[in-house]
Amino acid sequence: MASSSVQTVATAAALLLMHLSTTSSASFGARDPPPPPLREAQASCVKYLGICENRLRQYNNSIYPVDQDTMCMVRCAGIIVGFWDDAQGFKIEGLNSLFPQLAADSRAQQQIVSCAEKRIATCPPPDTCAKAYNGFRCFLDAQKGGFGVREPLPQQSPPPFDAAEFIRSLSICAKIQRIPKELQDLYAQGIFPNDEKTRGLIRCVGIRTGLYDDEKGPNVPLLYNLFGAGQSEADFRRRANVCINANQPLLEAQDKDAQAYVKLYRCFTDQISALVRANANAMA
Ligand SMILES: *[C@@H]1O[C@H](CO)[C@@H](O)[C@H](O)[C@H]1NC(C)=O
């Protein structure tokens, strides 16, 4: 009797301690929402990778469980905001630009970089999702233990959506999709062949730029801003809708990449090709 109640008290004390330690780490800002550019990248990666939308609530609260979806989401968001690259690996600069406190703390940076090197070395080489995640995890641990995210970044307005932003998204999506060099050379000439990789790339660019959505289809007003010079919006919209609707019955509803390729690329081929050719030297 006596020994079981001692045990109960001990268990309660342990639970209380656990509780205290979680609340105190939370007060360092680990559970603060990530800065806006990271939140936006997370949102487009969740859509693009087809991860259940309600996971985004966790990510928006800086909670990143260890599972395959989350790891690949971190890789994708890392490529977008610049803390991960499959070829170059973990890039602390990409995090410095998001977290001013980290940028000002070179000791924390070193600690994160050396932690990332060690952890990434233990991942099997082809598993880029696990590597990106492990690097990011080192950052999260350091954040929990010290520097906070108290001072928000001075509010940056998102970059204006224009040709340069379109090209930037193409380069980012080519990395996410692991597009081989031969295909990238074709893209630089404004040619986007109807193959699996390219269909995925077009959908990625569409989701990332907001020009396309799996449910709503092409965003015609935004496309008009980008491509509509010299036409009335009504004409532009009418032509766009004719093409989008004409292609609708041909499509396998399940294949999201094929939908995006037809409705976004096929219906705006000339404009997309011209834009890309005019800016090909900007494609890294
Ligand atoms: C998460 O953040 C993104 C970007 O700020 C926002 O668009 C989205 O609605 C948020 N989602 C949830 C579930 O909190």
From TrEMBL:
Keyword Disulfide bond belongs to the record: yes
Domain of life of the source: Eukaryota
Signal peptide location in the record?
1-25
Per UniProt, subcellular location reads as: Secreted
The record, for InterPro entries, names: PBP/GOBP, PBP_GOBP_sf
Q: Which UniProt keywords apply?
A: Disulfide bond, Secreted, Signal
Q: Name one GO biological process term.
A: sensory perception of smell
GO cellular component term of the entry, any = extracellular space
Q: Pfam families from the xrefs?
A: PBP_GOBP
Example of a GO MF term: odorant binding
Q: Does the keyword Aminoacyl-tRNA synthetase apply?
A: no
The UniProt entry's sequence similarity note says:
Belongs to the PBP/GOBP family.
What is this protein's name? Uncharacterized protein
Specify the species.
Anopheles epiroticus
